[in-house]
Design brief:
The complex is a heterodimer of chains A (239) and B (112). With 239 residues, chain A is α+β, with helices and mostly antiparallel strands. Chain A is built from ten helices and seven strands. Helix content of chain A is 35%, strand content 15%. Chain A has a five-stranded mixed β-sheet with strand order 2-1-5-3-4. Chain A has a two-stranded antiparallel sheet with strand order 6-7. Chain A is elongated, with a radius of gyration of 20 Å. The mean pLDDT of chain A is 96. Chain B is elongated. Classes of the chains: A alpha+beta (239), B mainly alpha (112). At the A-B interface, helix 10 of A face helix 1 and helix 3 of B. Bound molecules: iron/sulfur cluster (2 copies) and FE2/S2 (inorganic) cluster. The site of one iron/sulfur cluster has 14 residues of chain A, from helix 9 and helix 10. One iron/sulfur cluster binds next to helix 9 and helix 10 of chain A.
């Protein structure tokens, strides 16, 4: 395997730029992140990219690999390359700072806009909240809670590219886990924040986010839940 | 437009979609029945004129379409052409009235 070379086309530049091709030796169990690291360490030290954990924990290594948003540390070259060729670009739908590094501020600002911060009303003097793990609401919250904020779903969502205000799958998924959290306060404000043209009602249920989420979450299901919860609140005059 | 209004529009679009699905089925069944039975135009008019149930059904059909299409076009216009804001919504409100007017004109013509 090692005698074969991989032709890797890698994005260089920011919004303006071009792909540059590098030849990288193949190895067994090589990941796309290994390829990028090899280029930066051996072939071209000016290449900018981002990673931290290398094991699918931190969510910082997401890029567009052959047109598909992925965690590069958990994507094997064997699976992603076609005919010993691979194209590596920055994550879509985010401004590019340089090469493979995107500016994720708008992504996280939208979490704040969707009221994605937990706020409760208990103090340390109060007893623990008792939440039954098998209650319907808690199970729905748990289904979405493992998001690590990698932005893969955000890069996969067409509605984000068509509508720059759209909060996107991750922020809405986060809001949904809080709407389903018995301890969280500010439900009405949160529902208001995620309603309408920039919120859950803009989602077309394409399910690209669900298809691509490396944690196998379904933001689409959470967004459908938000649509129902917001509609009920609107009909009751609580929005 | 407020999040509340946008939510109401979304509900209206879902509700009108459900009505349209039922209306289209009934409408198609009626068309097939009328064609197979070989009804003439005069015979059809004979059945529709003064028929309150028929009038109510087609009024619901027309008004659902007048509601459903413009709300859908709101997203199409913003996502494909970047047309947002009040100018789009006013244009589409006029379009909704146009569909309602054209449709109800036809319904009344066959009823009265
Ligand atoms: S929902 Fe999945 S793809 Fe989206 S940010 Fe969270 S972990 Fe990443
Ligand atoms: S289901 Fe909704 S949030 Fe997910 S990719 Fe499709 S439009 Fe985007
Ligand atoms: S480097 Fe941490 S998830 Fe890939």
């Amino acid at each position: 395997m090692t005698d074969r070379a991989l032709k890797a086309r890698v994005w260089r530049g920011a919004a303006e730029g071009a792909f540059r091709e590098y030849e990288v030796p193949r190895h067994a169990s090589q990941t796309v992140l290994d390829v990028v690291t090899h280029i930066q360490r051996v072939l071209d030290p000016t290449l900018a990219y981002r990673y931290a954990c290398r094991v699918g924990m931190c969510g910082s290594c997401a890029m567009t690999v052959n047109g598909v948003p992925r965690w590069t540390c958990r994507t094997h070259v064997d699976k992603a390359a076609k005919n010993d060729r691979i194209e590596i670009a920055p994550l879509k739908n985010l401004p590019v700072i340089r090469d493979l590094v995107t500016d994720m501020r708008e992504f996280f600002d939208k979490w704040a806009r969707a009221k994605g911060r937990f706020e409760g009303n208990r103090t340390k003097k109060d007893d623990f909240a008792r939440v039954r793990p098998e209650s319907a609401a808690r199970m729905q919250a748990d289904a979405g809670i493992e998001c690590i904020g990698c932005g893969v779903c955000y890069g996969a969502c067409d509605v984000v590219s068509w509508n720059r205000d759209y909060l996107g799958p991750a922020a809405l998924n986060r809001a949904w886990t809080l709407v389903m959290d018995a301890r969280a306060t500010g439900r009405a404000e949160r529902l208001r924040a995620v309603a309408g043209d920039a919120g859950c009602h803009a989602c077309h249920t394409h399910m690209s986010c669900t298809e691509r989420c490396p944690k196998n979450l379904s933001p689409t299901a959470g967004i459908a839940g938000l649509k129902r919860a917001v509609a009920k609140a609107a009909l009751r005059g609580e929005l | 437009m407020s999040a509340r209004t946008e939510t109401i529009l979304w509900i209206a679009q879902r509700a009108s979609a459900a009505l349209l699905a039922a209306c289209v089925l009934v409408h198609l069944a009626t068309v097939i029945y009328a064609v197979q039975g070989g009804l003439s135009a005069a015979e059809i008019l004979g059945r529709t004129r003064g028929n309150g149930a028929w009038f109510a059904f087609y009024s619901v059909f027309v008004l659902s379409a007048a509601l459903h299409a413009p709300i859908g076009l709101r997203s199409v216009f913003s996502e494909w052409f970047g047309w947002r804001g009040a100018s789009r919504d006013i244009a589409l409100a006029l379009f909704a009235m146009f569909i309602a007017w054209m449709g109800m004109r036809a319904v009344i013509a066959v009823f009265a």
